[in-house]
Specification:
This protein has a domain of 100 residues: Hotdog Thioesterase (Thiol Ester Dehydrase, Chain A), CATH 3.10.129.10. 19% of the residues lie in helices and 33% in strands. It has five helices and six strands, in the order ββαααααββββ. Strands 1, 2, 3, 4, 5 and 6 form a six-stranded antiparallel sheet that branches. Strand 5 and strand 6 form a beta hairpin. The two termini are 28 Å apart.
Length: 159
């Protein structure tokens, strides 16, 4: 290994530990427009083949302007890995503990989604802590289409 070289120098963001976080911190994720390619990829991964996701005429007959995105497909857009947070906890992340979500409005092909995560609770433990984040997704019209929660187990700073 070359003198002075470290892998850590290439992370791009400073490492954070549980006690470095504050309630109210917000992570806006990159926006994404839901395309037919997203629908096809999700169908392959999930095996879901219900007409509401893949048959435009079925959707129109049921009052929808276009194909409906599967709820779990929409939920995927809240993945923390799309933003800054996982890079900040490269050394301190122990586990992604749980996730919940409520689907509030339909998402159709062509909608642009704006996901965000916001720290809403910090629960310290002996050597770790749990960070609870509110997950939200708004569409291009500013409508809240999904809300939920993520919980992450994060190490405290080593002594």
């Amino acid at each position: 290994m070359s003198e002075g070289w470290t892998r850590a120098a290439h992370r791009g963001v400073p490492q954070r530990w549980f006690e470095d976080f504050s309630v109210g911190e917000r992570y806006a994720q990159p926006s994404r427009t839901v395309t037919g390619a997203n629908f096809a990829a999700f169908q392959v991964v999930s095996g879901d083949n219900h007409e509401s996701h893949y048959d435009i005429e079925y959707c129109r007959e049921h009052g929808h302007a276009d194909l409906l995105a599967h709820g779990l497909q929409v939920n995927c857009f809240t993945a923390a890995g799309a933003g800054q947070f996982p890079h900040e906890v490269s050394e301190s992340l122990v586990a992604f503990l749980e996730q919940s979500s409520k689907f509030l409005k339909p998402v159709v092909r062509g909608d642009t989604l704006y996901p965000a995560l916001e720290i809403v609770e910090l629960t310290p433990q002996r050597t770790t802590g749990v960070i609870a984040m509110r997950a939200t997704i708004h569409n291009q019209r500013g409508e809240l289409v999904l809300e939920g929660e993520h919980r992450y187990l994060i190490r405290k700073r080593p002594a």
